[in-house]
């Protein structure tokens, strides 16, 4: 291939920018069912000319691709394979900076839009990196973790709250005649008086009990109820309630002491915990690193220090593109 032909097939800066925007839209649509994505428009852009396919391939290679959705699209359209001459350091730096800026802008705007309905519904909203203790009208104590939201709906017959997002620790005053219900988007937790932790995640609500007893209910599965005893935990999803298992109370309650406690925890889970306590995102671009094990005790108030220690221990390279975007490879 001549140099002239090769340059003609090389994506322009504008095409790389367009590919980065499509990549981020795909990522948002993959992470949230509420995010819209016009696949027909994307496919039309992708097939317009080889440079579009080459640009999208280059962006996917940089960010580690999007698992099945992106891989399927790439296989379907058979994008142009890049020549090694396209991978010079200056070009990689150019694409990295461009994609980073777009990713940050789209991620922050998406998060902002997602948060406003939650803020509007909640009575208590805790910012990233903060923590808040609440005493309800009945004397029960609730501690909200970083980036969490809670709505309180007490009536004459029921004490009810809804954990809209995040994590909370409950110390509920006993009242056999007036149950205390914690609602989540996955199911309900009902108690009369007890101590327990609830963490709302992407696909489940994890309930860990330290004192008393709780009943887990799955509204979409009529009659599906499980009871926990102290030292037990289970997860409620939209389809079922998981098996009851034991848990490490020191690890689960560590956030109340402003600590992370990890015991052979996969790196991708550790990074997810760190992201909960800092603005922006830490991203692992090499999937082979995700299952590396991490053990240690770190401060939730010093996430950058924790990340540095983890990277030094595991011999990982981190690239800080901005204060809001850190790449691990």
Question: Please, could you describe this protein's structure?
Answer:
The structure is a single chain. Strands 1, 2, 3, 4, 5, 6, 7, 8, 9, 10, 11, 12 and 13 form a 13-stranded mixed beta sheet that branches. This protein folds into 3 domains: 3-120, no CATH class; 124-251, Jelly Rolls (Sandwich); 258-328, Phage tail protein beta-alpha-beta fold, CATH 3.55.50.30. A hairpin with a 4-residue loop joins strand 8 and strand 9 (205-211). Helix 2 packs across helix 4 (50-63) and helix 2 packs parallel to helix 6 (89-121). The chain has 329 residues and is α+β, with helices and mostly antiparallel strands. 28% of the residues are buried. Helices cover 36% and strands 28% of the residues. It is globular. The chain is built from 9 helices and 18 strands. Mean pLDDT is 80; it is low at 1-7 and 65-89. It has helices spanning 3-9, 13-31, 39-46, 50-63, 67-77, 89-121, 249-252, 267-276, 303-314; strands spanning 124-126, 132-135, 141-144, 148-152, 159-171, 180-183, 188-191, 195-200, 205-211, 214-217, 225-228, 232-236, 245-246, 259-266, 281-284, 293-299, 318-322, 325-328.
């Amino acid at each position: 291939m001549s140099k002239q032909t090769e340059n003609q097939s090389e994506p322009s800066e504008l095409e790389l920018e367009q590919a980065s925007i499509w990549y981020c839209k795909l990522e948002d649509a993959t992470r949230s069912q509420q995010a819209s994505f016009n696949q027909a428009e994307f496919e039309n852009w992708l097939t317009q000319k080889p440079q579009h396919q080459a640009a999208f391939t280059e962006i996917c290679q940089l960010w580690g691709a999007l698992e099945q959705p992106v891989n399927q699209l790439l296989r379907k359209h058979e994008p142009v394979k890049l020549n090694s001459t396209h991978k010079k350091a200056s070009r990689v730096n150019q694409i990295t900076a461009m994609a980073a800026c777009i990713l940050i802008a789209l991620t922050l705007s998406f998060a902002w839009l997602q948060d406003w309905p939650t803020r509007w519904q909640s009575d208590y909203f805790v910012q990233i990196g903060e923590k808040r203790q609440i005493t309800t009208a009945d004397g029960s104590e609730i501690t909200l973790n970083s980036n969490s939201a809670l709505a309180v709906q007490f009536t004459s017959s029921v004490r009810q709250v809804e954990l809209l997002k995040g994590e909370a620790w409950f110390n509920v005053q006993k009242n056999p005649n007036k149950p205390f219900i914690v609602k989540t988007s996955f199911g309900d937790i009902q108690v009369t008086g007890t101590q327990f932790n609830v963490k709302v995640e992407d696909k489940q609500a994890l309930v860990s009990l330290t004192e008393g007893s709780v009943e887990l209910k799955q509204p979409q599965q009529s009659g599906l109820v499980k009871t926990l005893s102290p030292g037990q935990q289970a997860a409620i999803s939209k389809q079922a309630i998981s098996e009851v298992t034991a848990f490490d109370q020191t690890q689960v309650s560590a956030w109340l002491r402003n600590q992370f406690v990890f015991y052979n925890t996969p790196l991708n889970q550790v990074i997810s915990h760190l992201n909960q306590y800092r603005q922006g995102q830490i991203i692992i671009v090499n999937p082979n690193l995700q299952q590396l094990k991490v053990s240690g005790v770190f401060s939730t108030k010093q996430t950058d220090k924790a990340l540095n220690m983890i990277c030094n221990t595991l011999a990982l390279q981190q690239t800080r593109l901005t204060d809001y975007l850190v790449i691990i490879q």
